[in-house]
Design goal:
With 854 residues, the protein is of the alpha/beta class. It is built from 28 helices and 28 strands. The chain is globular, with a radius of gyration of 29 Å.
Amino acid sequence: MQPIRTFNVSPSLPPRLEPLRRLAYNLHWDWNVESKDVFRRLDSDLWESSHHNPVLMLGTISQARLLEVVEDEGFLAQMDRADRQLDDYLQERTWYQKQREDKPKECYAYFSAEFGLVDCLPVYSGGLGVLAGDHLKSASDLGLPLVGVGLLYQQGYFAQYLNADGWQQERYLLNDFYNMPLHLERNADGSELRIAVDYPGRKVYARVWRVQVGTVPLYLLDTNIEPNNTYDHDITDQLYGGDIDMRIHQEIMLGIGGVQMLKALGLKVTAYHMNEGHAAFSALERIRLLIQEEGLSYIQAKQVVASSNIFTTHTPVPAGIDLFAPDKMLYYLGYYAEIFGLSREQFLGLGRENTGDLSGPFSMAVLALKMATFSNGVAQLHGVVSRQMFQGLWQKVPVEEVPIAAITNGVHARSCVAKSTQELYDRYLGPNWSSAPLDSPLWERMEAIPDEELWRNHERCRLDMVLYVREHLVKHLRDRGASASEITQAQEVLDPYAFTIGFARRFATYKRATLWMRDLERIKRLLLGNKDRKVQFVIAGKAHPKDIPGKELIRDINHFIREQHLEKQVVFVPNYDIHIARLMVAGCDIWLNTPRRPREASGTSGMKAAMNGLPNLSVLDGWWDEADYVRTGWAIGHGENYDDPNYQDEVEANALYELLEKDVVPLFYDHRDSDGLPRPWVAKMKDAIRLNCPFFNTARMVGEYAARAYFPASDRYHTLTVDNYAPAKELAAWKEKLGEHWFNIRIKDVDVSVASDIEVNQTVTVKAKVDLATLTTDDVQVELYQGAIDANGEIVNAVTVVMDYQGEDAQQLSTYTGTITYTASGLQGLSLRVLPKNQNLANPYEPRLIAWAE
C-alpha cells in the first residue's frame, strides 16, 4: 500500500540532551575521542549494532534510557565537554586563515565517486574512497574553504559474505538516508533542492544531501526520486555497479550534475579538484556554462576551466582507466560538440591521446589531463609511472619533465589510530602529534614513552582485534547456517599473544594476496613448526563482484585454511569495512603488502598501521618505496622490475619467507627481557611512528595540495576572470597566435665557446640565434638543456639554464647567450630549446608546444 503522505520523523530528545543531536550530525565525532565516547556510553550495545551510527541510535534508543541519562551528572558533563570541543573546533583560527588572510573569498570543490568517512555511511569501496574521506577531514582540520561533491548510493558497495566453499557472495543492503548523519538540502520555501541533468531524450532529476564533516560540507546527489523513471532511479543505486551504460550515467551525474549542484547551492567555486577521472565531465559542463551564460568563446572558456582545474590520477596501468566507445560518447554528450563549435572528431579528440586515431575510445583520464593545469600522481614512484603512461600528451617533452607532479598520499591520523594509542600519544607527545611535521621537536619525545606502556597498549589492541574477529566470525557463520562445531571453532580462532601478520585490501590480482602461500610446506612450518614462536595471519578484503580472478584468490585462501587445518592460525574476516580496518591496523603486529611493482599507486593501509606502531613488510612499491623501510620495517626485494611474472613471484615469495624466518619472527620472539618485553621490536615500533606518522598523513598531504594546487589555481581563476574575463580572453588569443606561428620558429645557429674536451666546473659559453618568425621575445623562453648521456645516447637527469636575450642581429635573428658548467666527469650532453612564456600560464608546458635545436 502506497502512503498518501510521508513524514520525516526526527528523534525526540529531552531539551537537556539536545547537544547530542548536534554532535550526531557532524562527523567530527569520528575523530574526536570525547564525542565518540559519549555515544558509546549512552548505549554501548546499540552503538555496535547500529554500526556506530549516532543518528540511528538517537532514533531507536529507549525513552527510559534518555530519561535516565538526563539525571546522570557524569554523562551530562562529558556531553557538554564534547559539545564545547566541537564549538572550539568550528571557531578556531586555522592554518588556512594564516596562509590566505589577505586573499579574496574562495572555494575549492573536491569531486570523487566515493567517500569513505565512517562505517555507517557505506558509500565507498576501498582505498580511493577512504582517502577522499580523509582528505575532507584534514581540509576541515586546516580550515580550507573546501566542499566535497559525490553521489549518494542507495545500496552503496556490497556487503560481502562467503558461502560454504569460501566463494565471495554479495548482498546489497538499502541505506536508510533518514537515519544517517545526512541533511536534506532545501530551498528557502522548504521544498527539496533539486537539479535537472540532460540525458538523451529526457531530464534526470537529483536531490541534494549534505554530510557535515567538521567545517567541510560534502554534497551528495540522489536520483532515487520522482519523476525519474526506474532506470534513472538506479543511477545512484550501486557504487561501481551495472554495465558501461550505467557507468557513463553515473559519471555524467557526478561531473555535470555536480557542477549544476554547486551552482544551485550558490557556491562561487574558484578551484575544482577531480579525484580520478570519474568527474572529468565536470570540465565540459563548466565550459558550457561559460559559453552560454558568460558569452565566452570555446577557447576562452576552456582556458578559464583548465586554469582552475586540478586532476589526481590514482591509476598506474591503462587498464584501470574508464574508456567509452566513440558512438556512446556522441550519443550521450554529442550536444556539447555543437555548443562548443567543434566537429565530432574534435570533440572526441578531447579524450584521446592520439587525436588522429578516429576509432580510439574516449579516455576519462585523458580528458581530465587536457582540462587541468595541475595534475599529480599519489606517490613519488607513481608520479614516475604516470609521466611514462601519459607522455604522449606532451610531444617532445622529456619524460621526466612531463607536467604530472607527485603528492604522496597520507591518512587522517585521528581517524585511524586506536583510541588508547591516541591517548598515549596525547600524554607523551602532546595534542598536536596528529599534524606535527617531521622536523617538529615533538617527535624527539617518542623516547619518553615507556617501552612497557607502548607494548602493553599494543597487546590490548591485539586482544580487542582477536575478540572482535571471533565475534564477527560467529555471526557470519550463524547467518550462513553453519554447523555448531564450526561456530564453536570460530570462538577459539587466533591466539591473543601470538605474532600476527595483517593483510587487508582490495582483492585485485596485482596485489597478490596469495603470494605468501606459494610454498605450502614452508608456510606451514612457519605457522606450525614452533609452539614457542607462534605465527598467525588475519586477512580481509573484497573483490569486485565481476572480478572472478579476485574471487578465486579469496576462495584459494579459504580452501588452504580448511585443507591444511589452519582455522586457528589463519583467519579470513568477511565484509571488510572501515571498522574492521581500524581494528586490524591497531591489533596486528606487522602489515604485509605484496603488490606487483610498480602497480600499487600508493597504498594507505600500511600508513595507518605504521601510525599505530606496526612495522611494514612490503614490496618496494607505492608509498613504501619512499619510506624508511630499514628502520620502520622490511623491504621484500630491492625494487626490481621483472619481465616474467612467474619468476618474480618465485623470487619475491622466497624473499618473504627468508625475512619472516630469519629476521621478523626472531626479532619479535627471541630478544625479550626478564619482563617479557621485546625491546628491539618496540624500538622498531617507535621508529615506525616517529618516521612515518609526521609525513604520511593527510595534514601534510592536504597542506601540500593547498600550497601547490588549490592556492595557485584559485589565484589564476581570480586573475583570469576580472574585467569580464579580459585576461582569459587575452591568454586564449595569445595561445591561438602561438599555435598558428610556433612551427615557424627556427634555431638557426648554436655557437659553443669550447671544443668537445673540457674539465669539471669549466665555464662553457653558448650563443644562439633564433628566428622567432612573427612571435616576440616576450612570447618565449630559450633554455640550455644539459646532462649526462645514457646508453641510448639521450640526455638524462637534465638541468636547464635560461638564456639571456641580447637583441637582434642584422638578419633580425634574436640572439641569446648563456653559460653552463658540468659538475661531473664522463660523457655529457647539451641541447637548446624554446618554450612558451606568459605570466598567466600555469607552467610552460600548458600550451603543449616545444622547439628543440636539431
